[in-house]
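Quick illustration, no need to memorize.
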Amino acid sequence: MTTAKFAYANNTNFFLASEALIAQPFAIVGVPFDGAVTNRPGARFGPQEIRRASLMLCDGIHPHFEVSPLGMVGDAGDMALPNATSLAEVRRCIEAQAAPLFAKHHCIFLGGDHSVTLPLLRAAKARFGPLALVHFDAHCDTWTDHFGEPSGHGTWTYEAIQEGLVSPRHTVQIGLRSSGVRAAREYVADQGGLIFTARQMRGLDGSHLDALIAQVRERLGDRPVYLTLDIDCLDPAFAPGTGTPEPGGMSSSQLLTWLEALATLQCVAMDCVEVAPAYDHAELTSHAAATMVWTYLSGQVAKRMATG
C-alpha cells in the first residue's frame, strides 16, 4: 500500500492512497487481471487509467448527493497477482486478498476483466452471507463454458448462482443485448431473477426509468447487495475502450440514473470492470468509469453520513 496523502489540488488524483487506509471506511482496490477474456485483452490496465481519469473529481462535491467521498476513502493499490496461466490460482489470490479488506472496508474494485468478480463474490459471501446481485452488462455472463474452457469472464454469473454466492431471485441484470442461445440469455430470469435488457430501456430516462428501478428496490429490499458494473453496458459511443463492445447499449445518463437511485440499497461492495484503455478514444471510457465509481461512492457516503 502506498502512503501518499489525499490533497485538494486539481493535480491530485481523487483515488490516491490515503496515509492511513485502515482509518477510512471506503477502499479503492485495483484487480489488474485480463487473462480470461475471449476477444480483446487490455483490461489489466484499467485500474490505473480509471484512477488517472479521476483527476478532476478530486475536490468535487457530487451534484446529486451533495457530498464528496474525499475524506472517507483510501486506495489500497493494486492486488499482487501471480504471473500464472491458471485462472483458478489467480482467483484464489484475489479471494485471499479481498477477505481482509472486506473485514475493514466497504470496497470498490477496479478491474480487470469480469472473471475477477467471482472470487470477489466468494470473499463477500464469506463476510456478509448470501448476496443480492445487481449486474450491469451487455452480456449475460451465464455461459456454462468458454469455448471449451470451464470458466472465464462470461461464466461467472452462472458459477456464482451454482455456488450459492448470490440468491437467484435477488439477482438483477441490466443492459443485456448481446447475441446468445436462449438458455444463457434468460438463465437469470429462469432462476427467478430480473432482467432489463437494453432494448427495454431504449428512449427511457429520468422518471421513465422509475418503474424499473422500483421493481429492483422492492425485490432486493434490505439484503446485502454486491453491484458489478461492466463498462460495456454502455453503448460504444459512450465507452469504446472495452474488450467486447456491443452497439445499442445504455447511455451515460441512464446509467447514472440507475446508480443514483439504487444508492438506497444495502450495498456492501462494487466493482467496475472491462475498461481496456488501448481501445479507448479521448479517454471517454476511463472518464465514464471514474464518474460511475465516484457516483457510487458519493451515494454510499451520503447514506453513511445520514445514518451516522
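The longest helix spans residues 284-307.
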